[in-house]
Amino acid sequence: MKPPRFQYWAPGSLAEALEGLWQLEDQGYTTKLLAGGQSLMPVLNMRLSAPDVIVDLNHLAPELSTVQEVSETLHIGAMTRHYQLESHPVLGARAPIIAEAERYIGHVAIRSRGTIGGSLVHADPSAELPLVLALLQGTVTLQSRESIREVSAQDFFVTYLTTAITSTEILTAITLPTLPPGSGQSLEEVASRPGDFAIVAAAAQVTLDSDEAIHAVRLALGGVSSVPLDVSGSIAFLVGEIPTAQLWIECTQSLADLVEPDSDVHADSAYRKDLTVALSRRALTHAWQRARQGASLGSIGNKGGEG
Amino acid sequence: MQYVGQRIRRQRDERILRGQGEYIGDIQKPGMVHLAFVRSPYAHARIIDIDTNACRRIPGVIAVFTGEDVTCGPLPLLFPYPSLEAVTQTPLSREVHHVGEPVAVVVALTRYQAEDGVAAVQVQYDPLAAVVGMGQALELTAPPVHSHRTSNRAATIVQCVGTAQAVMDEAPVVVELEMAMGRVSCLPMETRGLLAQWQVFHGQEILQVYAATQTPHMMQRLYAQLFNISEQQIRVQAPDVGGAFGAKEPFYVEDFLVAWVARQMGRPVLWIEDRAEHLMTAVHERAQHHKAAMGLTRDGKILSVVDQFVADTGAYVPWGVIVPIITSTLIPGPYKVPHYRCDGTVVYTNTTPLAPYRGAGRPQAALVINRLLDKAAAQLNLDPFTIRRRNLIMPEEFPYDTGLLSREGTPMVLDSGNYPALMETLEQAGEYHGWRERQRTTLSTAHPIGIGIAVGIENTGMGPHEGATVTIGLDGNITVATGAASQGQGHETTLAQIAADIFHVSVDQVHIVEGDTAAIAYGTGTFASRTAVVAGSAVQLAGEMLQQKLLRLAGHLLEAHPDDLVVAGGSVSVRGVPTRSLTFKDLALRASGPFPGSTFTLPVEPGLSASAFFTPSGATYAAGAHMAVVQIDRETGQIRVIGYTAVHDSGTLINPQIVDGQLHGGIAAGLGTALLEEMVFDEQGQVVTGTLMDYLVPTAVDVPDLTVCHLSTPSPLNPLGIKGVGESGAIASPAALLAAIEDALRMTPVVESLPVRPMTVRHLLTESRKGEEFA
Fold first, then answer.
1. How far apart, in Å, are the Cα atoms of A106 and each of A61, A191, A305, B17, B693?
2. Domain, as residue range, for B54
3. How much is the ipTM here?
4. Do A5 and B676 touch (CB under 8 A)?
């Protein structure tokens, strides 16, 4: 479990990194970007990847770790680490599902190093942050020496551990919409042990209008497909309904037929379908309750109260 | 103050926690090179050709060895058994019998380069049909696991007391059970590792090995046999060892090959097993499939138990077939089973070999008998405590002759115990009736609570022997050398407590030396919950001998009768005359002899040192009763352990805090066996759970708060009345957890396999169509 030989390069700025990546590509070298290293290092040690050059982005952290709110949009630097995400006051108020997701991610040591950009580029279909990006229809900024482009979650996640990023690009920022008024969010998951990748995760956002009818509802699933799956379309018919606990039970029953999860050593397809139904209902119910409370912050600690 | 019985802190922890431990990976030797193994990707194959040319060109690679270079036959069989047809592993064999078996060795200046070399070795295999499942192994059409054998049967084990089947046929109540127990890894935090070097001293070859091992003296003996040299030429040292749990007990081909390569290279060779290698190649355990029946009277008294089982031993028998033998003898456990029959078949498969892991066949035995009792209790509408109480061996019945024979063919007699008291304490400390009350309102909800209990016994403190040499040094402090080896059990504290009490000194003045064949000539090792019992007793015996010598010497020098002497505070003085006194320092100096050339006139042999061996006459039986409380989420199948109580009787406790720790660890292991851990192979014999993302070991967050209580029924079989405890926590725990799950789901035993995962629960609920009612 030692990595094969590689060259190591730690650029001091984003501009230097982008220039270097362009040059390395030009000269035919294969590269891997090192952010928090929580996925890349095991992959290297198990010799599942053998790049010529490791480009360490950690000196870019000051430049790429800012969190800004600009007109109902959150811009999160790609090198923002999990521990920063879980305790950031702006994110806590404007995208509370991030802090909720972070509670499921790994352990303290992992969260002190791992980054949001690294998690998204690794693109594990059962990971929490890719699920949040899919739920909120966020975008990522992919930058190279020659171009800068905004890519939607749907276009970014291609399949297992594969994204639309090219070898000269760096994911520099994540853009998410802020929580709309009258909304609640929730993320529910089942993992084999606390901190493991989810077997299935469900993330929901419910927006109510002033008479408590559904104005908008979004639902995304992790662990049931090769990418985080936005299934909001399948429950779009709920818009305009006045929700009840029963409504969430009914609207989630059919989700079992919507997904075709793979079986693996942790769970078979049938169990993942069971979880899809149960966790979707729980996430939607919690999101709805939070929307009603109009309190997106304090309610996170109140999990477990079934509707 | 008497130290035995005190909760004092472990001496070694501060050093380890400060990162000052010295493990194999910390040892550096001048000229040391690194070794890595080329391992088979096939479960069964013949090697046609190995091309090492590309490997030899890798920078840093200095040597490559294949089976053509090594002329060593199969490793010696460690534990013969009459019916065992043993196949042991051959170093760099031309036929591989499980994935991960070494086929070549690469030596390089760094581990990185060695792994580069491994990747460059080209091996051409002729794949052969592989046998993976236990069931498949016994089919008539099954391919052979080893090409030279026609059958895949390794051994048959029969235990028989009375006329079990005949009594079963007549029994008014009969319950049946099928139970398949998954395969688990020992998984110590530190993997295996070895550093070997050959040197010449006074013209004689000396092999020095640092090993992460439980059995340094056994390694020494095996090296002597394999290299055909005297054990006096071999020194095996176990430095700090980071856990073992059975994984570091057998002698592996890697152990031979590292030493062999060091001899070829003429320089020190280091091999550190990585986690992938550990999961693939270090021994596994559990893997048994039982079909059992119990006949009872209508009031729940056991009349007869019949069990048939198949046990997997993997490709080889690295520790004989001890595990299934133990299972077969311990199924009756703490209960009176007047008629008993057990037929075990041990099979070879093309998988990682199996050998004892913490518990060593006893958790399987505890599952069979306790699950049968739960099933009978459900059928007879009896409380699980009640049916157990009606069948326990009573305190006045000890020594209790089980009617069985031990592995050596001698009668298997339980020495002592008080099982009803265990149950009594469990019922109180576990708040059984409180939980039953709380359970009532949850059973019809989406989150039902379940309560399960189990009782298990453990034969501990087995032979053949362990010795101790106790010495008072010129600094007045006491050094104790034993043949045991610590992997974190705290011997440096517990054995010191025993010695400190004999000499009435502070425990800080006692230094324990172990894990070194140069410290004491013979030893057995640390496994089978034996060190406190066997090494502890040896320390007591040797300490008492030294005490006599000390008194004889002091009596001579102080001109007093030994009976009139008092030993206290590191001095010996005449009773009532504190001024007539000699310190241990004075006495040690006098005993070491006057100046060179003078005459030794003291009435004792030179040196304040004494050695003794303890050779136990038989096993002493520890016992434990466990109660688990779980809460199930019917929708997701998730199992939360919300209460756990264990009551144990390990005889005299040397250090209750360390015993608590042993039970905590053992219960965590049992929880892993029951709920999380399983080594999975696919049909081709590939390891599916080859990383710690897929092999799920319980972490601190998975282990609930544990209530641990102790009873003490001293053993009559050793001077201090000690019983072993290292494995105890792992024995009754899986049975208690399974019972709790079934109790929550209100299904009479239907859980037929281990581990029970949330998915298992969901599928059970779906099958019974109970899940939907609560959705």
1. 21, 11, 25, 23, 11
2. 13-19+33-128+191-241+248-281
3. 0.92
4. no
A interface mutation test: which of B635, B639, B671, B679 has the most A CBs within 10 A?
B635
CATH 3.30.390.50 fits A183-296, yes or no: yes
Same domain? For B113 and B226 the reply is: yes
Which residues from chain A sit within 8 angstroms of residue B696, using beta carbons? 192-193, 196
Collapsed DSSP state (helix, strand, coil) of residue B25? helix
**Residue-wise pLDDT tens digits, B377-412:** 999 999 999 999 999 999 999 999 999 988 778 899
Q: What is the pLDDT of residue B766?
A: 87
Chain A: give the shortest CA distance to residue B116, in Å.
6
B112, B688, B699 member nearest A2 (Cβ)? B112
The closest CB to that of A5, out of B116, B680, B701, belongs to B116
Question: What is the per-residue pLDDT across B580-603, written as a single tens digit (0 to 9) for each?
Answer: 999 999 999 999 998 889 999 999
- Is residue B470 assigned to a domain? yes
Per-residue pLDDT band for A302 (boundaries 50, 70, 90) equals very low
Looking up tokens 């090594």 gives: B70
What CATH class does A68-177 carry?
Answer: alpha beta
Rounded distance between C-alpha atoms, residue B751 and residue B766, angstroms? 14
Domain shared by B198 and B100, yes or no: yes
Q: Nearest to residue A99, comparing CAs of A83, A117, A121, A78?
A: A83
- Beta strand B122-127 pairing with A31-34: unpaired
Residue B37 lies in a domain: yes
Every domain of chain A and the residues it spans = 7-57, 68-177, 183-296
Give the pLDDT band (50/70/90) at residue B746.
Answer: confident
Q: Which residues of B touch A279 (CB under 8 A)?
A: 636
